[in-house]
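Q: What structure does this chain adopt?
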Amino acid sequence: MSTADDDRIALDLLDAHLEDLWRAAVELQRGNRAVVPEAPRELGGAAADGAATELLRWGYGELAGIPRSPADVFARSVGSTLMEVRRRRSPWNAAALRLLEDPYVFLATGPRRHKDWAEDVLALMHREVPDPRGWLRIDGDRADHARYAVPAYPFEPPPAAEFQDRLHELEPAGAVTALAVMAEEWNEGRPVRNRPERDALLADARFLLDRYGPDARFWTNAQDAAADPARDFVQAGLEGTRVYGFITGEYTNGLDLFDELGLIAVSDEEVGVFWSFGAY
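A:
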């Protein structure tokens, strides 16, 4: 394997350990029992010098200094270290976290393996494929017990053959605003259009979609895009968006999903899925 492959494996190992540790810490904070995983014994096969090794050393150094009690400090410290590792790993990760760290969203990219890219979208919704570049995935439901009942939770998508009935193509400018508006929370009352950082959020959204190249195409489940493929979602706001459903109606873990907005990016090599959820 190449040095780049070794670096990626080592960083993936650190990321996975921090996420497992954070989940255990959160359970302890809630007063539940949890097995706290042991740290990997080695940094992996990263090169002796370079940004990856520097990040690995920083991450493991921070990890070694995190107190295991009290539980709230443990959880907060591990979570902070995990997010910082992800931010430092790539500019794309950093932009994704600036834009979408706080709202309830799903963000994932996978390989394009099928002529009918809806099959690749389904693979992402079912968590069957990794990011081809090892970059960030935002998926708070990946380990949710709800997936025993609804495997793609919070999605309950139609078969690939029915995607064309629930999606409309967007122009690139419309896709940027569809992604930027996901920085809002449903019923939050803080629309992106009124925020002082509006232009910065749009720039982050544009940067994220640039990943898929100049020939990428974009689709949304927003019904109004049928008549306006250049729709300005930021100006319209998230609340009140009419969509074709891709989310489950299952009432699970005391949570009811009631709103959504999705964006799909498709290139010859990759497929990206960005989805915002409203829940109570």
